[in-house]
Design goal:
Layout: H1 3-21, E1 26-29, H2 51-54, E2 60-64, H3 65-68, E3 70-75, H4 78-86, H5 92-96, E4 103-105, E5 112-117, E6 130-133, E7 139-144, E8 146-147, E9 151-152, E10 154-156, E11 170-172, H6 183-186, H7 200-203, H8 211-222, E12 228-231, E13 234-237, E14 250-254, E15 260-264, H9 270-277, E16 285-286, H10 298-301, E17 328-331, E18 334-335, E19 339-344, H11 350-362, E20 371-372, E21 378-382, H12 387-400, E22 412-416, E23 425-430, E24 433-438, H13 440-448, E25 454-458, H14 460-463, E26 464-465, H15 471-488, E27 491-497, H16 500-504, H17 517-520, E28 524-530, E29 536-543, E30 552-556, E31 562-564, H18 567-590, E32 595-596, H19 605-609, H20 624-638, E33 641-647, E34 653-659
Parallel strand pairs: 15-16, 19-27, 19-28, 21-22, 21-25, 23-26, 25-27
Antiparallel strand pairs: 1-2, 2-10, 3-5, 3-7, 4-5, 4-11, 6-7, 8-9, 12-13, 13-14, 14-15, 17-18, 17-20, 23-24, 28-29, 29-30, 30-31, 32-34, 33-34
Length: 667
């Protein structure tokens, strides 16, 4: 044993003794394994409660849940478990982030385990362990406590070593003070004295102590298939035939008569698996869905009470039924309980626009003609820009919107998530199966935004570390955002980058990139579209709950803030710029400088005059090029400036701007 292994063993022994002194019933597990060490480990008479006994054990330690008065909610697939529980009115994210939540973390992505004490007045031995399966018959969630015949299931306790990661399990929360099992979870446990569920396979399991069952587990362990005991007479392992490419697809169940039921749900044949296990004549082994546990799993894959998935909606009295209204944090662009996308290509002004909207909503003032419900609580989560940059932008926004800084105190909270890992969701490749997993950063975001009316996430490319073209994963991420919105009755705003070609195609409704699921999963969509005259249009491209708002013209201030412009304001600003541009054109013509009509590239009209001395101050500012070209277009429409075709010296003709009257003449 290496020194590191020795220190780990000492830590496990010390922890085991502490558990026993705290009243836990324990069992001995093999080193670096979830498998129990001895026959009868799951019975009360073999439960270990003596600290001195467990303190000399050199292996992992398991907690016998039912005998310790505990239950666990074992999440094997975070995404699928969230969806399954949400359909039954249970918010898994809220449970995981509760202040008194007690979790066991293994370090394996997409998995966690919640620990509760059994409710007062409920016999833990009456709470039968229940496994929830997805449509591919993979375990996504397990309600764990007792097995039939008065036995208990066990969970590996920290700091035991996980067999896969070879790292210690960890507690999150106070293990000495677990919270009581909520009623919403209690009702999902099948009970001995309650109505029988369609789980004949559980009722007919053995204790897991039979020679054939243990022989199968031993063979699997020798082959490196990592068998894991999930309950009495019930285990999972990687299939020895195909190398575990489909996860723990091999299920091993013991019958009361000691025979073994095996089923590889990746489709391996009986002969192939038996050959891989090295079986000749020996224990009876059955394969296939008919003898495994998957035929009787409607309770797991469908509704908890065996009810139909599709429920008919009664239409009687529909003509007089009250309408179900949708409330808005900011009407009509930010519906509560929904996700709104704000899209635009890089540099379009998404962050400035969103932060301006946040500041206005926090103090209850109108922004771009959109009225908030009143002073709102807004959480702005910056995953791209550092907090100092956001503060600088906010200072300019407050100045240009004429908002006193004290008006946003307590209303607007800014969170800097730009350092280190920023993703709220990541793609996990588990033996070729790609799934989307919500990260600890997501859980932290759920916590800090608990009381917000508006939650702004800047932006999707940092929050979503997966394939943006994968419809299933995109929809899963958007469902999590929508669940967050509905949990707090908040409006969630997600900023999304779009490419410039998509942005220019906005008139055709294509101002998003990646899968159409981004568009379809949102109920309100805004886009920032740069216009040819240097302005930016804020377009309400989609509204599922109310007529979309009219486009709003925005202009850049000298401090880099997008401000709404009315028609008169816009004309006045461009007109003032046009007077300056007219003088610049006159000087250029006197100097023989040609002014090309191009507005893109390195040889634009603005580039032709940028080096002239004595230019107006605004022509050296951040938005100089946009304002200069907008003023030129205004002058062309008004008449003082025309464009002409002139030879460029290379045998071609190019378009140039020219004063309609001689240089220096009256316009």
């Amino acid at each position: 044993m290496s020194p590191a292994d020795g220190s780990r063993g000492t830590a496990i022994q010390a922890a085991g003794a502490e558990y026993a002194r705290a009243g836990f019933a324990l069992c001995r597990l093999l080193p670096n394994s979830k498998a129990a060490h001895e026959p009868g480990w799951n019975t009360r008479e073999h439960a270990i409660t003596d600290p001195d006994v467990i303190a000399v054990w050199h292996g992992n330690v398991g907690g016998l849940l039912a005998f310790s008065g505990l239950v666990s909610i074992d999440v094997d697939d975070m995404q699928s478990a969230c969806a399954w529980l949400e359909a039954r009115g249970v918010n898994l994210m809220q449970l995981l982030c509760a202040p008194d939540a007690l979790r066991i973390e293994s370090g394996v992505p997409n998995r966690t385990k919640l620990i509760y004490k059994a409710p007062d007045g409920v016999d833990p031995l009456s709470l039968m362990t229940r496994r929830i399966l997805d449509t591919d018959h993979n375990v996504i969630l397990e309600f764990r406590c007792a097995g039939r015949n008065g036995v208990s299931v066990q969970d590996v306790l920290p700091p035991s070593i996980h067999p896969g990661t070879r790292l210690p399990y960890r507690w999150h929360g106070d293990w000495r003070n677990p919270p009581a099992l909520p009623d919403v979870l209690l009702r999902e446990f099948p009970t001995l004295d309650g109505p029988k569920r369609s789980r004949a396979h559980e009722e007919s399991r053995g204790t897991g102590n039979g020679e054939a069952f243990r022989d199968v587990l031993a063979r699997l362990a020798r082959l490196g298939c990592k068998p894991e005991v999930h309950g009495a007479g019930d285990a999972r392992a990687f299939c020895p035939n195909h190398g575990g490419k489909s996860g723990t697809s091999l299920h091993i169940n013991e019958k009361p008569d000691g025979k073994v039921l095996l089923c590889c749900h990746a489709g391996c044949s009986q002969d192939d698996v038996l050959t891989a296990l090295g079986f000749g004549p020996g224990p009876e082994v059955h394969f296939g869905l008919g003898t495994g546990e998957r035929r009787n799993t409607r309770d797991d894959a469908g509704d908890a009470n065996g009810e139909p998935w599709l429920r008919e909606v009664p239409l009687a009295g529909v003509a007089t039924a009250p309408s179900v209204g949708v409330s808005f944090a900011v009407s009509p662009i930010l519906p509560r309980g929904e996700v709104t996308i704000l899209g635009g290509h890089g540099g379009a002004g998404k962050s400035i626009c969103a932060l301006s909207m946040a500041a206005a909503a926090a103090c209850g003032v109108t922004w771009c003609g959109f009225e908030p419900e009143g002073p709102l609580k807004v959480a702005y989560v910056s995953l791209e820009d550092h907090g100092d940059i956001v503060r600088s932008r906010l200072r300019n926004i407050l100045h240009d919107l004429r908002i006193a800084p004290q008006l946003i105190d307590g209303g607007l909270r800014v969170f800097d998530g730009s350092d280190g890992a920023t993703a709220l969701a990541v793609e996990v490749n588990d033996h070729g199966v790609r799934t989307l997993t919500m990260t600890p950063q997501w859980r932290e975001l759920v916590e800090v935004c608990a009381d917000a009316d508006i939650i702004i996430v800047d932006n999707a490319s940092d929050a979503y570390a997966a394939d943006e073209n994968n419809r299933a994963q995109v929809r899963s991420f958007m469902r999590h955002l929508r669940a967050l919105a509905r949990q707090h009755n908040a409006a969630v705003v997600l900023l999304c980058h779009i490419d410039k070609m998509a942005a220019r195609g906005s008139a055709q409704g294509n101002s998003y990139s990646g899968s159409t699921a981004w568009h379809n999963a949102s109920r309100s969509r805004l886009a920032l579209i740069p216009n040819s005259d240097g302005m930016v249009l804020l377009v309400h491209e989609r509204s599922s709950h109310r007529k979309a708002a009219e486009p709003v013209a925005l202009g850049w201030s000298d401090t880099g803030v997008l401000l709404p412009l009315t028609g008169q304001q816009r004309a006045a600003e461009v007109g003032r710029d046009a007077e300056d541009v007219l003088g610049v054109l006159a000087r250029a013509e006197q100097l023989g400088i040609r002014i090309p009509t191009a507005t893109r590239g390195s040889s634009t009209a603005w580039h032709a005059v940028a080096d002239l001395s004595g230019l107006p101050a605004w022509l050296s500012g951040r938005q100089a090029s946009r304002r200069f070209h907008a003023a030129l277009l205004w002058l062309a429409e008004a008449g003082p400036v025309v464009h002409v075709s002139l030879p460029d010296g290379h045998g071609h003709k190019r378009e140039f701007w020219k004063l309609a009257s001689p240089a220096g003449g009256s316009a």
